[in-house]
Write a structure and sequence with these properties.
Helices cover about 75% and strands about 0% of the residues. It has about 325 residues and is mainly α. α3 runs antiparallel to α4, α3 packs parallel to α10 and α10 runs antiparallel to α11.
């Protein structure tokens, strides 16, 4: 009787798990191929927006009015929204992490905002140290972003490897626990994977995304510094980060809600031990996708170092006496 009641549910949960794995594979494939076609068009649009940002800074220098300030901040915020909507490894890492590892809505919002803020702070620090501290040209500072990008890819690969190892380790612990007693509690609270509460993984996600600054942010702070408006560039980059956070947060929330929807459907046909096992394997699959993504992007960067396709103007260097703090 018991077997007859559970048998009809098997095709249902297997179909749902298969659909989830297929969806994650499609997401991974989409991000791998995003550099083609649409991605190239987005790069061209980004180049136009880079020019518009430098023109907004020049307009602020020529006409320091409230309209110029609003124009600069509005354009920076819009650039952040647009830039976050395009292809990028950060969004792939965040969505894959949330889909496969789980997390609360508040947690997803916090990760998105922290990653966007870290990108802005890294860009500001890069220009401050390299351009003002060491006397580099802004274009040289933008070229150094490639090294941060490669380090970011390595961190992504390490994150994926760690997630895979943790999923396997937790699967063994789950098996040992269920061998002793599987009647402790079957409420939804215990169905959430423990890695969703592990801040080490969350901080690794933030670091892998945020340590690679947006080239537009570096350009904006550098151009503003050249014209003697360092702090205007800093505020504009923070506005850009707010726009990025808005778009990334929407994607992160959608990922969390999609996972919660799948968990609720699976709970109706699976006991908590079997569901927990399925979620562990989903975590392993997500870690594997992140590992493959990081390694492939790192190897692509080694074979063909990136070139910054931005402005052709060679005058983006600081004046000899310029300083972001006056003097």
């Amino acid at each position: 009787m018991r077997g007859a009641m559970t048998r009809p549910s098997r095709p249902r949960w297997r179909w749902l798990v298969g659909l989830g794995v297929l969806s994650m594979a499609v997401i991974g494939l989409a991000w791998f191929t995003s550099g083609q076609g649409v991605g190239l068009q987005l790069v061209a649009w980004q180049r136009d927006l880079h020019r518009a940002l430098t023109e907004a800074i020049a307009y602020l220098d020529a006409v320091p009015s409230a309209t110029a300030w609003m124009s600069l901040f509005g354009l920076s915020f819009g650039y952040g929204v647009f830039h976050a909507a395009g292809p990028g490894h950060g969004k792939a890492v965040l969505t894959t992490y949330l889909l496969s590892q789980g997390g609360a809505l508040r947690r997803a919002l916090l990760l998105s905002c922290l990653a966007s803020l870290l990108q802005a702070l890294v860009a500001i620090a890069l220009v401050t140290v390299l351009v003002h501290g060491l006397g580099w040209l802004t274009r040289q500072a933008m070229g150094s972003v490639v090294w941060l990008e490669q380090a970011s890819y390595l961190l992504v690969a390490m994150l994926g490897l760690w997630l895979c190892w943790r999923a396997l380790a937790h699967s063994r612990l789950l098996h040992q626990a269920t061998a002793h007693d599987h009647h402790e509690c079957d409420c939804a609270h215990h169905l959430t994977p423990r890695q969703a509460d592990d801040w080490r993984g969350a901080l690794a996600v933030v670091a892998s995304i945020g340590m690679r600054p947006c080239s537009g942010s570096v350009l904006l702070v550098g151009a503003a510094s050249l014209l003697g408006h360092y702090w205007a560039g800093v505020l504009a980059v923070l506005a850009m980060a707010a726009g990025t956070a808005l778009t990334v947060s929407a994607l992160a929330l959608a990922s969390v809600m999609a996972r919660e929807w799948a968990e609720r459907r699976l709970q109706r046909s699976l006991r908590w031990t079997r569901l927990a096992r399925c979620l562990r394997w989903a975590g392993f699959a997500g870690g594997l996708l992140i590992l493959i993504l990081g390694l492939s992007l790192f190897m692509a960067g080694v074979r063909a170092p990136a070139d910054i396709p931005l402005l052709d103007a060679p005058s983006l260097g600081p004046s000899p006496s310029s300083s972001p703090f006056g003097g």
